[in-house]
Write a structure and sequence with these properties.
elongated; alpha+beta; 2 domains; 4-stranded mixed β-sheet
């Protein structure tokens, strides 16, 4: 289950991980502060300063936790429907951010020069996401890649089946596209 970016359950895993890290760092900071307070009566000690410095990475983890709470990944039923597709071509639980919006893309299917994505949010403009991805691909010398983002699950699964059924895959190009999509994702 989703410890690596691009695997199913990644967003849920990162929520737990960031919350645990934040709690541990805050507990350490409070421990350092109270040890210093019991040893010295003045607040302006090295213990207080160290406790405040330890709160900085804790706060960063808390912000990451909030970011992962805002977004949701695909559900288990959707993942099971994708189980008959080629796993090497799939990326799950991506959050792609454009200049004005962020998109919860449950899955991308990548094969050679084609990318299919599934983002079921009816309020989002898929053309804007496709345009953003096109610009990113062009900037990274991947100009001939076809991009289509679907709102309907059955259309995405049908297109992904077509991409998985291709006999030969250019693994170099597929890996380049995969790397770029993972870099663009939260």
């Amino acid at each position: 289950m989703g410890k690596n970016k691009g695997s199913f359950g990644y967003i849920r895993h990162m929520r737990k991980k960031m919350l645990i890290h934040a709690l541990i760092l805050y507990i350490i900071a409070f421990f350092i502060f109270f040890v210093g307070k019991t040893r010295y009566s003045d607040y302006a000690t090295m213990f207080s300063i160290t406790a405040v410095v330890v709160c900085i990475p804790g706060s960063m983890r808390l912000v990451s936790f909030i970011m992962f709470m805002i977004h949701r990944g695909g559900d288990t039923a959707f993942f099971e429907k994708c189980s008959d597709l080629d796993e090497k071509l799939l990326i799950f639980d991506c959050v792609v951010t454009t200049t004005g919006d962020s998109y919860d893309v449950y899955a991308f299917c990548i094969a050679d020069d084609s990318v299919a994505g599934f983002c079921p949010d009816p309020k989002k403009d898929m053309q804007k996401l496709e345009k953003h991805l096109r610009e990113m691909f062009d900037k990274n010398s991947l100009k001939s890649v076809g991009i289509k983002i679907f709102k309907e699950e059955d259309k995405f699964l049908r297109r992904s089946s077509e991409l998985s059924a291709r006999k030969s895959h250019d693994e170099g190009k597929t890996d380049s596209i995969r790397t770029l999509l993972l870099n663009l994702s939260l």
